[in-house]
Specification:
Blueprint: H1 4-8, H2 11-29, H3 35-59, E1 65-67, E2 72-74, H4 76-103, H5 108-126, H6 130-148, H7 155-186, H8 191-197, H9 203-220, H10 229-235, H11 238-262, H12 269-287, H13 293-310, H14 317-346, H15 363-366, H16 368-382, H17 388-402, H18 406-432, H19 446-464, H20 467-473
Helix pairs in contact: 2-3, 2-5, 3-4, 4-5, 4-11, 4-14, 4-19, 5-6, 5-11, 6-7, 6-11, 7-9, 7-10, 9-11, 10-11, 10-13, 11-13, 11-14, 12-13, 12-18, 13-14, 13-18, 14-16, 14-17, 14-19, 16-18, 16-19, 17-18, 17-19
Length: 477
């Protein structure tokens, strides 16, 4: 039975769900001749709703509750994840308005889809039952399929959505079959009940866990199920790509963290280590030869999935803190980079040259503000201090060293050095080459620029004083 207190203790979830429905109704009810005013109203309403959800999430940090008849958890881990996810979506919405207008796709349902996908992510993070996990994952994925093809008149966008839909639907079968095997042995899909059953050595139970893990490998973009990422990220609208590659990936890793912790998956460290190393290898090596910046950062995101996977070798309090710190910093640096890509993309004429590295030549002379922000995001992605990306990699590799997987940390550091090359290549294009085009006019995309500045400030603040995040993460048990 659902109690009123359940709603009170999950206000962020309720706010996001209600906002998604209200935005959908606003787009439907207002007349078409006032569409411009409607889009502006929806934009500001979205920002206010997300800000309110973040504020209430901070109030939930010290709670330890299981609500909705055991289906939803509220604790420090879920609250920090919610803050990261909602904050990432706030930056996405802020950067979307100018981009959508320039691409001629400024439709209110875009914001509704963002909110429904965020609702799915939050359900994944707060799930205390495999059914809720499945519902959240599919809600997020269905919204992503539509958002990836939101530029309906462009073949690349349609191709991106179709590829994602076909592969995502296939992987859904693995997830459902895994849940069926787990339920078949334990007689329950509830996390608490399954953990008490302690069926770790049963064949079908282990097969179920394996199938669920395979589904997570796909959603996180880890090797060997990473093949969809470059094409989908390149074809999707740039603001959507930034959101999927950062906020969406954080939701998947957050759900995987809860899955590992509750199901005590501590007997496969070597498998996780191999997956992490192969993911880092593939992402970094293939990124070296990319000439399209969206594809380059797509392969980079695969490499970062490998770094994060290092923290899953052995789940303990320190590795949980390391994973969460990395995810928070990754949202800021990945989203920020794609915000800048979206701004530069608007200034590039012709589909053939859009997002080509050549279009970044001399950006430092044409628009120093954009180039400086992009440099900050690339430095953080490379793990260079004083930005949060450095501490993210430091804590992740330290977590491997603490459990005597020093060789994994060494390999990870070496691959990270390989990654520095292609990030520095972009910086060289921006600051040490002559412009390949005429001067980019002053930044008039106020909201997009503000989103990039917020991300940069966050990276610098968390890099100089990581305790801003760690003081909350230490409460995760």
């Amino acid at each position: 039975m659902i109690k009123f207190s359940d709603f009170v203790n999950t206000l962020p979830l309720v706010i996001i769900a209600a906002s998604a429905l209200i935005i959908m109704l606003l787009e439907t009810l207002f007349p078409k001749d006032r569409r411009k005013s409607t889009e502006i109203l929806i934009f500001y309403f979205s920002l206010v709703s997300l800000a309110a959800a973040i504020a209430f999430s901070f109030l939930d940090i010290n709670k330890m509750l299981v609500l909705y008849s055991g289906f939803i958890r509220v604790n420090t881990l879920t609250s920090v994840l919610n803050i990261a996810l909602i904050g990432g979506m706030f930056i996405t919405v802020l950067s979307s308005r100018n981009y959508l207008e320039s691409e001629g796709i400024d439709y209110g349902e875009y914001y509704s889809l963002l909110f429904f996908s965020l609702l799915g992510m939050m359900l994944m993070a707060q799930a205390n039952d495999l059914i809720i996990l499945f519902v959240g994952l599919e809600l997020m994925s269905i919204c992503f399929y539509i958002l990836a093809g939101f530029m309906r008149k462009k073949m690349d966008s349609n191709e991106s959505a179709l590829k994602y839909l076909l592969l995502g639907s296939f992987i859904t079968g693995f997830l459902l079959l895994g849940i069926a095997f787990i339920y078949g042995y334990t007689g329950s899909t509830n996390y608490s009940t399954i953990s008490l059953a302690n069926p770790n050595k049963e064949t079908f139970y282990l097969l179920g866990l394996t199938l669920v893990f395979i589904a997570f490998i796909f959603k996180t973009g880890s090797f060997p199920l990473q093949m969809w990422i470059p094409d989908v990220y390149q074809g999707a609208p740039t603001v959507v790509t930034g959101m999927m590659s950062s906020v969406g990936k954080t939701a998947a890793f957050g759900a995987l963290l809860a899955f590992f912790s509750i199901f005590s998956m501590t007997t496969i460290p070597m498998i996780i280590a191999v997956v992490a190393i192969l993911t880092m290898l593939y992402g970094n090596v293939v990124a070296l030869v990319q000439v399209n910046i969206k594809r380059l950062l797509a392969y980079s995101s695969i490499a970062h999935a490998g770094y994060i996977m290092v923290g899953f070798i052995m789940i303990n309090p320190f590795s949980q803190h390391a994973i969460m710190f990395y995810l928070v910093s990754y949202i800021l640096m990945q989203l920020g980079a794609f915000v800048i890509i979206g701004i530069v993309e608007e200034q590039t004429s012709g589909d053939a040259s859009r997002n080509n590295l050549e279009s970044y030549k001399g950006l430092g002379k044409l628009n120093p503000g954009l180039a400086l922000l992009m440099t900050i995001f690339l430095f953080s992605l490379a793990g260079i201090p004083p930005f949060a990306g450095f501490w993210g990699k430091y804590y992740i590799f330290l977590s491997a060293i603490q459990i005597n997987y020093i060789w994994v940390a060494i390999i990870g550091i070496l691959f990270s050095l390989v990654g520095v090359y292609y990030y520095i290549k972009i910086i060289l294009y921006m600051w040490f080459y002559e412009p390949a085009a005429e001067a980019i006019p002053g930044v008039k995309r106020t909201f997009s620029f503000a989103a990039a500045v917020i991300s940069a400030i966050g990276l610098f603040a968390f890099g100089v004083y990581p305790e801003l995040i760690l003081k909350y993460l230490r409460n995760i048990i």
